[in-house]
C-alpha cells in the first residue's frame, strides 16, 4: 500500500512520518535532513534533550516539520512509547535506527561495562525499535525499516571489539527480520557504511593510551582517501531504505571488505591481526590497565592530550564536519 503525502507541516492521517533514532548529531542528523527533503514529517529521538532540541532547530527553524522526542534506544518501554508517539503524528512509514557509540582501545583496557553499553544501544536498540514498529506497519501493509550497522558489523577490527560485537548482532537481527517480513509490504534494510567523515571522532570514547588511540582513529575517520563524505553516505542509505533493499554496503571500502571477508574469512582475520601490530600496544601497567567501570576519555579530550598540530591539520576536514553536524 502506498501512502500519499499531504502537507508535511501539520500532522494528520495522511501525513507521511519518518522516525530517526539517534538524530541529534552526525549521521542521524544528516539522514533526518534527507528525509525532510523527501517530504516526510520527521520525529527525531536521542537521549540528551539539549542536543536534541538544538538538532531540531538546525533541521527546521520553524518547528513545523521536525518533532523532537527524548528516548533511550536501549530502553524497550521508552522505545515503545516513542513509536506510539510517532504514530500519532501521521502514518509512520519509515523508522531508522542510527544511534551508536564508538569505543576505541585495546581489549586489555576494556571491561564488561563497555560491552554492555555498546550492546544496549547498537543491538538492543534496533531490536526494540523494530519490535515496536513492525506490528503497525504490517497492519497497514507498508513500511520501511533501516538499521545502520557498519563495516565493523561485517569485519571485526582490533581496538573496536565492543563496537563490532554490537554491530554484528544488529546485522544478524536485521537480516533475519528482512527474511521474516518478506511478502508483507514491510522491508528491513541492513545499512553497512564504511568510515564516514561525520566528525564523530570527537565524540568517540577512548581507553588505553588515549592520545595514541585518538591519533590513528581520527586520521582514519577523516582523511579523504579513507573516509567518505557523510552527506553522500546519508543520501545513499536513505535511498536504499526507501527502496526496500535488504542489504546496502555504502562506500567502496565497505563493499570490498564485505565481499572479501565473506569469501576469505581466515585471511581477513589474519589481516586484522597484522593491522593490530601497528596500533598502540598494551602493557601490564600504566594507562592500559582495565578499570572496574566503563571509564573512557572523550575524543575532544584525547585530542588535547595528544596535542599534535600535524594531526589537527590532517583532521581539519573532520573538524569542519563536526561543526556542521553538531558533533562539537
Unreliable spans are 1-12, 284-294
Helix-residue proportion: 40-55%
Number of strands: 12
Separate helix tally: 13
Strand content: 15-25%
Q: Please compute the radius of gyration using only Cα atoms.
A: 19 Å
Would you identify the CATH H-level superfamily? NAD(P)-binding Rossmann-like Domain
CATH architecture call: 3-Layer(aba) Sandwich
* Shape, principal axes of CA atoms: globular
Question: What are the main properties of this structure?
Answer:
seven-stranded parallel sheet, alpha/beta, three-stranded mixed sheet, 13 helices, 328 residues, Rossmann fold, 16% strand
Overview of the molecule:
The protein has 328 residues and is α/β, with parallel strands linked by helices. It has one domain: NAD(P)-binding Rossmann-like Domain (Rossmann fold, 3-Layer(aba) Sandwich), CATH 3.40.50.720. Helices cover 47% and strands 16% of the residues. It has a 7-stranded parallel sheet, with helices on both faces. Strands 5-9-12 form a 3-stranded mixed sheet. α4 packs parallel to α6 and α9 packs across α10.
